[in-house]
Predict the 3D structure of the following.
Amino acid sequence: NRTVRVEIKNSFIIEKIILEEVMFFNEWNILVVDDEPDVLAVTKLALRDVKVYGLPLKIHTAGSKVEAIELLNGPLTLQGSTEPIVAVALVDVVMENDQAGLELCEYIRNDVSGHSVQLFIRTGQPGIAPERRVIDDYEISGYFTKVELTEQKLYTLVKSGVRQWFTSWYALMT
C-alpha cells in the first residue's frame, strides 16, 4: 500500500529531522494569555509535565494583551528576527476590552510575522466573538470555550500544536 509507505517514510523523515534539529531548542515556548489568574494557574498546572519530542514546555503567562505584547517583543523574540519563538498561544478574547484577544492575534500574525504560531482562542464568552468569524478573520488554529477545554483536550491541543509549529518552523528554515 503506497499511502502507508509514504506515511511511514514521512514519519521517519520527521523523526530524523527532530533528532538533528531539536538540539536548537531546549524547551517549547507556550504563551497563555488570560485576565483570570485562576485560568493561568490551572493551565500551568495541567501542562506541567507535558513533553513534546522529549522536551518540556515553558509556559509564559500574561494577564492582558499589553503584557503579552511585552513578552512577544522581549524574551519570546528570536534573536535577529521580529518573529516570536512561540509554538502555541492560548488566548482569551475578552480582557482589557471585548476584542483584546483578537487584537493580540492580529498583532501576532501581522505585526510580528508570527505566521507559524499555533493560535487557539479560549473564551468564556463565545457570543462576543463568534467562532466562524474568528476562524475566518484571524487565521486561528482552533476555538474553544473555557468549559469544553478539559485537561485532556488541553494536552492534545498543545502537544499537536507544538508538533505542527515545529514542522512549519523547520519548513521555513530549510
